Input
Amino acid sequence: MSSVDYNERIPNNVGLAGDRTLQRALERWQPRFREWWGEMGPEGASDYDVYLRTAVSVEREGWANFGYVKMPDYRWGIFLNPAEPGRKIHFGAHKGEDVWQEVPGEYRANLRRIIVTQGDTEPASVEQQRHLGLTAPSLYDLRNLFQINVEEGRHLWAMVYLLHRYFGRDGREEAEALLERRSGDRDNPRILGAFNEKTPDWLSFFMFTFFTDRDGKFQLCALAESGFDPLARTTRFMLTEEAHHMFVGDTGISRILQRTAQVMAEHAISDPVDARRHGVIDLPTLQRYLNFHYSVTLDLFGADVSSNAAIFYSTGLKGRFDEARIDDDHVLEGATYPVLELDAGRLVERPVPALNALNERLRDRYIKDTISGAARWNRVLERHGIEARITLPHKAFNRAIGSTAGARVAPDGRIISEAEWRAHESEWLPTAEDRAYVASLMGRVVEPGRFANWIAPPATGIDRHPIDYDYVRFG
Ligand SMILES: [Fe+2]
Ligand SMILES: [Fe+2]
Output
């Protein structure tokens, strides 16, 4: 069951041909998806031949399939990791019972909500990124953008399959609605805040793929623990795709820092004005972009204290990150977990029932992951003899969701007055002027092997090709 049948209209490894009703329903959704892609997918890129990878199986070697594809012809399909025989639910009230192959009636509404919320982020990011191809800093980067875009499209397929297969008529209606909401739309926006923000330039794109795709990784990891086996299996396969998205963000920021550090070292400059004079992204601007994307992404994990999170866990729908490796009873009755609270003008930790703090716990685990990313970036600065460092702001900084929402918190975690916030906001968050400067650097570089001045080339090419390979052909 792990190999994918590409002779079918919808490539899949779920035996779709054996379920004619489902197959027909998905075949009716397919042209609607293509219409959406045509309208909201990468702008002006439908004739390009792009060197893309397409999964041919869910095994490790299944990713070896690289070739030139026009994006509208990409074979979006339905891939689930193979079932693990005898898999048991390993947390919550159903711990020890067999995993479910069908949706338990009493959990149907919650499961649907979880799947729709995850599914909605996938087309949202394609919409957010649709203009970026016009200002790609190289063919290598352009190809990576498109690879991410087609895979986010496939992630939408993954969630739509679950909706169609397991949720009947409401599932089909939700699948339609996933194609109708639009990122940033006033009347019909995407469900989560960060997915309605703009991704107007490549600095934002790399920040987004580092921070926000990483939120995706943590959400998918939590869902990969689910007692609803089809959800666990589909998210496990999505994680293999997600890894590449985070790689693009991680190395993208590294390459920007490398270029900035080179220029600073070469000309012995440290003033951001001088860095800008040389046409690179100055470190304070990069730090402000980071502060923005980090804080907006932290909000995606939801309220610190959440009864929904408790219900999702107790009922076996959504586990913790790396659930199996955590050394406790996996039920969490009576356990506590610390969350931050504002108390008389200070941030204090308060223990709350661990079941209610699962969002906060996932957020903390995510923060740990991002800290090692920032440490890698700082090694780039160190190697070039630059003293300045990139830092992650305090987790209460600039939050709109959770117990510190709306509080004025400096990046170092101090609670400050509204006046102090206003006096420093332009040092902490991107200004209109920063955005205009970054926008002024964005220009299209399409000569193989050439890179925009503000970013260093990558260490290696794709699929063992050289860096100056023509990863995108314009026909
Ligand atoms: Fe995704
Ligand atoms: Fe992603």
